[in-house]
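Q: Please design a sequence for this.
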């Protein structure tokens, strides 16, 4: 049932998550949005005395959990109901694979956000469910207890949630991160992370956090600076080049009746393209000029790159334009792009369904090439 955002946790991710938990002294574990309970077996395998309390909206899931784990508590309820019948500050551990989705920001959800987080979203009409699940889980945890939560990259690395992460990781301690490869979840393409958050104030936001990269069954250990998870990475300088994307859909471009560059399947990667345009430029369209590097931002051929060899052309919103003013920097970029493009795209494409690459990712790349 993909419609309910029921992207169940894969076995390998569940076992990896469990193996990184300290469950020796855990008696009670909360799992909100428990689904089919993929996280229960791996945790019980480590400590059979742990009693789970699961909550899920879907009665079929709850019924199956009651049948499979009759000694645990299973509630068919809305985990985000402010009146959910659970005790605050009670659980020794919480694990959660929340729905990856936006929901309308109701008054009920504003109460969940509470004083600490409300100001971040006071201009929003929608909110990510994962944000509410994280806050809700922490509310039910004992002081010092850990939440292990699976989140898509939007929650961990988007600019729009930078303030949320800043407040979250200043109030609670991010103790480690697992960076999971694509397809760690059945039926979703999302790149995901497991965040281990302890209900205790961090000693300092200048600390580094263990960062495990899980790929093809292997784990590589690294570390990141806690503060790097909320400093807006788009503050990198963009001296020496201009980058922007088109603003019109291909339909709007087509209606204009003039040539335009779009994420066409037929263009050859790293080739020159030529368009014959001789009409007046329109103010409400974006144009690329001779020498500009045009990159497919979305679609099946994401990352496909061409160089404009004619005077100018309109670009659609599926294309990013890179215009270098610094010749050396352009050369460095093209050298890098010719050899590492595919690897870079697979590490930097975002989005749960439609994959895309962001301008900020390019800014980060170019700043690393200086
Ligand atoms: C992404 S799945 C989680 C799967 C599960 N954690 C696992 O590992 O197998 C999301 C689950 O959340 C449930 N769900 C969605 N919104 C919910 C809510 N507000 N309260 C409780 N459960 C919810 C769905 O029914 C679904 O089973």
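A: Design:
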């Amino acid at each position: 049932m993909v419609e309910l955002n029921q992207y169940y946790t894969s076995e390998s991710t569940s076992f990896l998550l469990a193996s990184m938990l300290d469950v020796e002294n855990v008696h009670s574990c909360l799992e909100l949005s428990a689904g089919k309970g993929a996280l229960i077996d791996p945790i019980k395998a480590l400590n059979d005395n742990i009693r789970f309390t699961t909550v899920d909206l879907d009665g079929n899931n709850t019924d199956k959990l009651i049948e499979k784990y009759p000694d645990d508590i299973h509630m068919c309820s809305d985990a985000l109901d402010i009146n959910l019948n659970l005790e605050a500050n009670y659980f020794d551990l919480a694990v959660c694979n929340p729905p990856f989705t936006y929901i309308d920001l109701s008054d009920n959800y504003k109460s969940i956000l509470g004083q600490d987080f409300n100001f971040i979203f006071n201009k929003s009409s929608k909110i990510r469910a994962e944000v509410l699940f994280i806050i809700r889980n922490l509310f039910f945890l004992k002081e010092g207890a850990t939440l292990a939560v699976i989140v898509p990259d939007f929650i961990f690395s988007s600019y729009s949630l930078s303030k949320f992460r800043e407040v979250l990781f200043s109030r609670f301690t991010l103790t480690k991160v697992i960076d999971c490869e694509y397809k760690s979840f059945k039926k979703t393409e999302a790149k995901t992370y497991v965040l281990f958050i302890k209900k205790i104030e961090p000693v300092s936001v200048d600390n580094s956090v263990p960062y495990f990269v899980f790929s093809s069954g292997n784990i590589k250990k690294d570390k990141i600076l806690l503060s790097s998870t909320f400093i807006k990475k788009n503050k990198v300088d963009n001296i020496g080049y201009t980058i922007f994307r088109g603003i019109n859909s291909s339909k709007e471009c087509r209606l204009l009746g003039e040539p335009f560059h779009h994420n066409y399947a037929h263009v050859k990667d790293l080739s020159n393209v030529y368009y014959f345009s001789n009409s007046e430029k329109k103010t409400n369209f974006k144009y690329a000029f001779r020498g500009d590097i045009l990159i497919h931002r979305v679609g099946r051929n994401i990352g496909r790159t061409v160089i404009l060899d004619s005077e100018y052309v309109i670009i659609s919103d599926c294309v990013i334009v890179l215009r270098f003013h610094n010749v050396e920097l352009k050369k460095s970029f093209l050298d890098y792009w010719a050899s590492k493009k595919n690897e870079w795209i697979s590490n930097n494409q975002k989005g749960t369904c439609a994959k895309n690459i962001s301008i900020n990712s390019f800014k980060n790349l170019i700043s690393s090439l200086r």
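Q: Thanks. Anything notable?
A: Confidence is low (pLDDT under 50) at residues 1-6. Residues 235-369 form a domain with the Adenine-n6-DNA-methyltransferase TaqI; Chain A, domain 2 fold (CATH 3.90.220).
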